[in-house]
Amino acid sequence: MLLLLRQVAAQEITPDAALLQIRQAPFADLGYAKIDLHRGVRQGVPEVIYGAGKTAAQISEIVRKMLENGQSRILITRLSAEKAALLRSIPAFRFEEAGGIGLVGKMPEPDGIGSIVIATGGTSDQHVAEEAALTAEALGNRVVRLYDVGVSGLHRLLSHTEEIMSATVIIAIAGMEGALASVIGGLADCPVIAVPTSVGYGASFGGISALLSMLNSCASGVSVVNIDNGFGAAYQASMINHIGGNHENTVS
Amino acid sequence: MLLLLRQVAAQEITPDAALLQIRQAPFADLGYAKIDLHRGVRQGVPEVIYGAGKTAAQISEIVRKMLENGQSRILITRLSAEKAALLRSIPAFRFEEAGGIGLVGKMPEPDGIGSIVIATGGTSDQHVAEEAALTAEALGNRVVRLYDVGVSGLHRLLSHTEEIMSATVIIAIAGMEGALASVIGGLADCPVIAVPTSVGYGASFGGISALLSMLNSCASGVSVVNIDNGFGAAYQASMINHIGGNHENTVS
Amino acid sequence: MLLLLRQVAAQEITPDAALLQIRQAPFADLGYAKIDLHRGVRQGVPEVIYGAGKTAAQISEIVRKMLENGQSRILITRLSAEKAALLRSIPAFRFEEAGGIGLVGKMPEPDGIGSIVIATGGTSDQHVAEEAALTAEALGNRVVRLYDVGVSGLHRLLSHTEEIMSATVIIAIAGMEGALASVIGGLADCPVIAVPTSVGYGASFGGISALLSMLNSCASGVSVVNIDNGFGAAYQASMINHIGGNHENTVS
Amino acid sequence: MLLLLRQVAAQEITPDAALLQIRQAPFADLGYAKIDLHRGVRQGVPEVIYGAGKTAAQISEIVRKMLENGQSRILITRLSAEKAALLRSIPAFRFEEAGGIGLVGKMPEPDGIGSIVIATGGTSDQHVAEEAALTAEALGNRVVRLYDVGVSGLHRLLSHTEEIMSATVIIAIAGMEGALASVIGGLADCPVIAVPTSVGYGASFGGISALLSMLNSCASGVSVVNIDNGFGAAYQASMINHIGGNHENTVS
Amino acid sequence: MLLLLRQVAAQEITPDAALLQIRQAPFADLGYAKIDLHRGVRQGVPEVIYGAGKTAAQISEIVRKMLENGQSRILITRLSAEKAALLRSIPAFRFEEAGGIGLVGKMPEPDGIGSIVIATGGTSDQHVAEEAALTAEALGNRVVRLYDVGVSGLHRLLSHTEEIMSATVIIAIAGMEGALASVIGGLADCPVIAVPTSVGYGASFGGISALLSMLNSCASGVSVVNIDNGFGAAYQASMINHIGGNHENTVS
Amino acid sequence: MLLLLRQVAAQEITPDAALLQIRQAPFADLGYAKIDLHRGVRQGVPEVIYGAGKTAAQISEIVRKMLENGQSRILITRLSAEKAALLRSIPAFRFEEAGGIGLVGKMPEPDGIGSIVIATGGTSDQHVAEEAALTAEALGNRVVRLYDVGVSGLHRLLSHTEEIMSATVIIAIAGMEGALASVIGGLADCPVIAVPTSVGYGASFGGISALLSMLNSCASGVSVVNIDNGFGAAYQASMINHIGGNHENTVS
Amino acid sequence: MLLLLRQVAAQEITPDAALLQIRQAPFADLGYAKIDLHRGVRQGVPEVIYGAGKTAAQISEIVRKMLENGQSRILITRLSAEKAALLRSIPAFRFEEAGGIGLVGKMPEPDGIGSIVIATGGTSDQHVAEEAALTAEALGNRVVRLYDVGVSGLHRLLSHTEEIMSATVIIAIAGMEGALASVIGGLADCPVIAVPTSVGYGASFGGISALLSMLNSCASGVSVVNIDNGFGAAYQASMINHIGGNHENTVS
Amino acid sequence: MLLLLRQVAAQEITPDAALLQIRQAPFADLGYAKIDLHRGVRQGVPEVIYGAGKTAAQISEIVRKMLENGQSRILITRLSAEKAALLRSIPAFRFEEAGGIGLVGKMPEPDGIGSIVIATGGTSDQHVAEEAALTAEALGNRVVRLYDVGVSGLHRLLSHTEEIMSATVIIAIAGMEGALASVIGGLADCPVIAVPTSVGYGASFGGISALLSMLNSCASGVSVVNIDNGFGAAYQASMINHIGGNHENTVS
Q1: Which terminal residue of chain B, N or C, has fewer Cβ atoms less than 10 Å from its own Cβ?
Q2: pLDDT exceeding 90 applies to what percent of chain H?
Q3: Residue E221, Ramachandran bin (φ over 0: left; ψ between -120 and 50: alpha; else beta)
Q4: How far is CA E61 from CA E46, E55, E64, E68, G180, in A?
């Protein structure tokens, strides 16, 4: 902006042309620039495409454009096997069925502060967990998977106390009664992001029981994302795990 | 009934008089007798008066009638301190404010199979817990209190593993996220009766979160009673703790 | 542990090797052992596999491993007829379609205190009832089935007063308004475990009406499990029906 | 209307004046007349004033106007003792605190087909029951009160089978699990109007549990009114109990 | 019972044999008889089979048994066209697809006090309405159909004021906002039974909006049955429409 | 902005000073200006203070500042009589208790297109209605009050057909079943804004029943605001009633 | 009516014949006429057929009748592609799949006061948005589409400030958290009609989250229609956008 | 543990005494130590006392014990002014009424990575905001308060873009429709913790609307804590803001 104003002062550009430039690029010049670009602040962060509700053709087209724009790494969430099969022609594409995740480009080297522990209550939470794990890895995090450590078999969880104690951030994923978040929140000394899952029967109400349980956790340091939202948990966990790095960028 | 029929056959009673007797006492003679009397099957079981919604005068009158009928032990639940003060003239009456319980007569000696463990998640669950504990004691059970062993401080619970493992039946009382029932259900090898409490803030919804959490417990052997219903949990726990005794009575 | 410490004292094992043993087997030595094994405390108790959400191949593999480990009796719940057909090659396997239950090995002889009465409100509750009944039988209980004794035809229920009065524990299964639990709770003198079912129309809300009704039962001695959870009710009922036996084991 | 038109034809009234008359009295002349007056169709039916939300002064004023208009019998519902005390100066006024009902004028002789049975599950439902009973009596019905016959003590209800079988219409009032309506619906052969009450604890949710239970009643012939709406149940019950009378009026 | 007792007194039967008889027939002799038979009190009332959840074979078998027992008229509700096609071999069977009703035997002549008006808010409520209408006709009632008279086109409803004013009982069927019951309740001078339907979009929640609206009707004389329960409304309406007749039977 | 740029070009202001000006006034210069001022676009529109949750002192201070800024007309909503008494010293202040509205300055002359009809179902909706009516009048609208025209007495509503037909916009206010909005929506040919009120009993749930009913209205042209939000309805209604005026302003 | 009365006065018609005319045409003569015809008040307004729940044959028949009655423009909402394919033989029929809208006849020229802005939060709200847009166009409005301007990318919304500021009425369509309505309500100076959509995952509950969010909007001038009800929003928006026109019609 | 084992090996302690030590201190020696002490890991972290539900005497006693144990800084949450007045005798105690927070000892110097921005939608959210702000400050964080920047006046929020862009973590607090979290989530590039507040009217349902809105936020990087839980949000935010520090501790 200052540059532009100086050009005006130097008569290098007319006031009318300057006004046009300002109007056309209000976000780039007036402090909003980061909004537009903020997902790409750190080097190598992938673009994310929400796959549900888009056809394979639409996804393919979006990927193609992103690649043209120089994006080297793309994450496609909520991708079905059927759609994934139609995307095989994309170069460097692979599909992780466990989490419903499609990836274009190579996974980055982990560059976060520490590791993200992803713990699940049961095997049926695995799909959500893998969505979280693959997202976190694609965002440059080292991930430790602690699956099937639900509270009804407490010894399984306790045998992993060391991983829990040394995590930078933990994602606790559970359906049914969702008690896992509270127990881990009590054991750990780092932020815990709880993900209720829609797994359950009877009065689990598609994840509401677990959601309420997690919101009411008596452990400090626990926050909650939406039901089955493994991606959202991993996205925030990655932000937390890169805070040191962001901070350095900001101050330097 | 057979006796009556024989009296008819022996002309000791007219058919019309016999019919009257049958009509007047249908429950005593036709297999329904136990319905009327079933709460007094075991020797010394107290009568129970639900105190909420009754005036002190009404409670006093009911107690007086029960004492006249030879009932030596009476339990009054949901009794406020105000009402209790007005009941002081009842002989052998005492009031336990912690559980809102009034007692007439002496506590019985424990005669159950083993002990009932009553565990709570936090100090604010204590009122419900004492309602359960005093009820259980008044019904002839040995009670072990494990208060404030919530899952966010798991070590407090684990330091009582022995009591949990050796209980005959456990009452798990918790508000907020209600995870205690699942964790205890996983540790214990006996029936667990879960009591959600209305303690909590925000989205605990007066106990609904804990109720749903407990209904969805992934641990086997857990059943649930209504919110804050310490009495109901203790009543069923006492039934379970006396099953051996009942069985002997039944077969002998 | 004491043995290990004595070995250390006797120099039969180095402190470092002892530490390793303690770390590797924390649950076996520190009072947690029962957790791992607690489902096998009584002789002959079957392992339980939750069939929903597992493929026939996964179930088959789990069964094979269990058999290798010496488990002679296996219960598979929530098993569809399609999956069951694929499990036919398992030796001594049979499928009970009525309750969606697969069984490997012979049913045990009943060894509980008395019998478990399973009562249903209507014919449409039968699937849940059979899940409960077969589970209870597989866990070593004598089961008395009282099906279709709903409260709108009270005489059907009353004609079974004798069975109700002599049960050790009763499982009351009903959808719609769920009144069965209250009526049976009023008639019986033993613990009643209520199972709401998702049967119903209009404002039954997939079992919520029955669930709320049962939680609010005005009869003492009634607790509730999750909607359609026949297995859970039977598991707890079996615990109760074996309490005398457990107690003997514990004290001897 | 025809009369008016003939007056126009006979020039006894100008068309403009006739139009004015028609506009001013559209309901009296065009078939809507009954709307305005339909509550007074049967001789002696009282006017009803909903007392909640009105001051004693307002109620007093309304009563005075009704008496001036020749209304000899007035029913005031949801009336508190405080307001009732301020209404004592009204001639022939009396207050029934049990049902929160004020009455002006004498109760009518019963003129219905038969009797209305009002059954309650517990003593705490009595206030709603008396609102229903007094309303029904004020509307000219013979009322049979069966209070405290809840389903957890089935023998109390069964000992009144005769009254239930011979009722013209039954009002079943219950809180908590609301099972009374189903059981009575199964026993009776006449319409049953169910009234859920807000009595209850924990998950009774101010009457919702009872409401849902009653809506899902498996017994035929049961309909439901709003929570605690004793007046509404009695009003409809009285309509039903006077149908024969209405019919005679209609055909004669 | 008196007869039996006299036989005992006369030594015509031994006391033991008499006891057996009493035990075997408790309902026939002790005032419960009507329970068993109460649905057949009026001559010609059909038996009702709830078709949903039963196979065509099961329905066919039940019908056959009923016919053998002399039942000449049978109503099958919630019957799909597919099942109905398989029932064609039953003599005198016909299927009314509009209401999902199967009928065996001839429709009875109307013998009620007056007529039952069945009003619907829209054409999409017609299926529920026909279930009600055919049930009412099969139970011996004259039925007046007022379909598609919803309150957003008030003139359609008002043009039928005469039918509404002269009904003995009205069934008001509506989805969406369910306002029809209130408007008819204000117009009519007879009992109104409201049936919420599951028709609607968005926040209609499968009929809950209409259900709540009807329960909160500000018009007197309105009661409500479950969502889509056309049969239940018609059953109660028929009871009301036959009260005069029942009364005669009872007193004669 | 253009002016500023020209000043820069003319060296009348340095680029740095211009940048500062732009940063300090981004909303005034870049098209956001209207945001800040948009409530004052039409001449004489009052400022609105939401009175609930503010002390009388706070309100008084805000009013004083507004008056200093030249605002001649101020509307204070949700104002209690207690707070209003403390505001008496404000010049030209008056308090309308019926709607809980305080006004500073004179009411404006109506300058809208036509009139706003405000209809209520019952007398208990009057407080919300007066909040709406006084707000509308303070915003420069002619208001027609049609109170107590609920659908259970349809003739009262129909006798005002003319007012309804000639309104520019209608605010329909009702609690309980909320049917008023649908009926008016069917009669009227203009936008209807529905306001559910928290008036009601039993299953009215503090206005939810009315809210759902109104959202599901089968009449076209009906939208809904929050429960008891008379102000919000009036604010939008006034916007609609001034659209012609606004439009003229915009094009001129 | 006055004409008729004058005819009577002039003996041109007998009183009986006049009465018959009045009875047969109550709506045409007594002020209700507009009810019947009110949808056709403005020239060229299309008839609307709700397509869901009607077969293609039924729709075709209705269209044919409307065309016979001289209706030149017909709008069919909630029309599936399958049904639309079967309607191709209707002259001047076209199908807009994006909004599920069928149109018969030509779109009218816009004749409203200004333009209706339709803004959506995401691409998945487009179906509802097109239903609204095409409806608005068919009702004679100029429509400005601002799609995919959700609040998580605020710059996209802000770059359209000009369109928002100059709209006559805005329809804000959003699922998930529904924040769009509040943000637009804060920016705009005209009525905003909010449409929650059922788009979302987890705890969005089929649109309830967005619905509640919109009802609780802290911005003035926002009202809400039912979930996914694009048609309803457009219908009311068109009413608002034609108010000037209506007003002129009314006064002229 | 190794030390202890070596002592055993060295015969410095008997095996029995060693066993006793192990049993008494299982958490200190077996990896659970951090559980007990984890809140004190960083130097100077205050102990937290939840003040609600505790008497002033209880709080005073707990504070005294903590001070004796060397704790120099104590935070008391949910403290009323009444209780605070009774705590004045505690040395170095002060009370912050705005957030209901009591503090013992001096506030620490901020030692986190960056600053925590706390933004609120309206002035009525201030109490929750101050609970969060004071908690965060007591935990050693620099706090930036952005109060009253709700989305209906977007310019207020946008004028603080710089603070939002440079935050390390943001706490977004809002009632009513809760849109603030989404808008900030879209602007910011750091973790956002959303706190729904119970502020609101009508269908805000004590914070549920805001809660659902925040859970469904379409912005990435947003998680949610319980309604009004300012403390919980600040606790997790502080964890995040100290992650760099923790990490250094862990690796060093």
Answers
A1: C
A2: 42
A3: left
A4: 17, 10, 5, 11, 60
Residue G85, CB-side half-sphere exposure with 13 Å CA sphere: 3
Contacts of G204 (CB under 8 A, 6+ apart): A226, G175, G176, G198, G210, H212, H216
Residue in D251, D239, D252 with CA at minimum distance from that of residue D42: D239
Query: Which of H123, H124, H202 lies closest to F228 in CB terms?
Result: H202
CB atoms within 10 A of CB H2: 12
pLDDT at C42: 39
Residue A138 is inside which H or E element, if any?
Answer: helix A126-138
DSSP, residue by residue, A97-124: GGGTEEEESPPPPP-SSSEEEEEESSGG
Instruction: Decide if H121 contacts H152 (C-beta within 8 A).
Output: no
Q: What is the pLDDT of residue F42?
A: 39
What whole-number percentage of chain C has pLDDT above 90? 42
- Which amino acid, one-letter code, is at E145? R
- Contact assessment for residue B115 and residue B141, using Cβ atoms and an 8 Å cutoff: yes
Mean pLDDT throughout G206-216?
Answer: 88
Q: How close E33 gets to chain B, by Cα (Å)?
A: 15
Number of A to H CB contacts under 8 A, please give it: 121
Sign of CA dihedral C151, C156, C158, C163: negative
Sheet containing strand G115-120, edge to edge, reads F142-146, F115-120, F169-174, F192-196, F222-224, G222-224, G192-196, G169-174, G115-120, G142-146
Please give the average per-residue pLDDT across B85-112, as a whole number.
Answer: 92
CB-nearest partner of C232 from B220, B236, B240: B220
Mean pLDDT of the D144-171 span? 88
Local confidence band at A82 (pLDDT 50, 70, 90 cut-offs): very high
Residue H196 has pLDDT above 50, yes or no: yes
SS3 of residue B51 by DSSP: coil
pLDDT, position B176: 81
The mean predicted confidence, pLDDT, of chain E is: 82
Classify H130 as helix, strand or coil: helix
Other C-beta atoms within 10 Å of H142: how many? 17
Place of tokens 């009934």: B1
Q: What pLDDT is attached to residue F22?
A: 57
User: According to CATH, what is the number of the domain H115-241?
Assistant: 3.40.50.1970
Q: How many residues does chain H have?
A: 252
Measured at the alpha carbon of residue B179, what is the angle toward residues B50 and A228, in degrees to the nearest 5?
125
> In this complex, which of H2, H15, H26 lies closest to C15 when CB atoms are compared?
H2
Which one of G151, G198, G223 makes the best mutation probe of the H interface by having the most chain H beta carbons within 10 Å?
G151
Distance CA C186, CA F214 (A): 43
Closest residue, chain H, to G174 (C-alpha) = H218
CA B99/CA F208 separation, integer angstroms: 36
Q: Which residues in chain A are closer than 8 Å to C207, comparing Cβ atoms?
A: 202-203
Question: What is the pLDDT at residue C244?
Answer: 61
Strand (E) positions, chain D?
A: 47-50, 74-77, 93-96, 101-104, 115-120, 142-146, 169-174, 192-196, 222-224
Region(s) of chain B under CATH 3.40.50.1970: 115-241
Residue among H42, H95, H47, H86 at smallest CA distance from H68:
H47
Helix, strand, coil distribution of chain E in percent, nearest 5:
50, 15, 35
Write the single-letter amino acid at C205: F
Q: What pLDDT, on a 0 to 100 scale, did the predictor assign at position C29?
A: 30
Render pLDDT for C111-159 as a digit per residue (tens, 0 to 9).
999 999 999 988 788 899 999 999 999 999 999 999 988 887 787 888 8
Mean pLDDT across F100-112: 92
Collapsed DSSP state (helix, strand, coil) of residue H95: strand
Contacting partners of chain C (3+ CB pairs under 8 A): A, B, D, E, H
Contact between D125 and D159 under an 8 Å Cβ cutoff? The reply is no
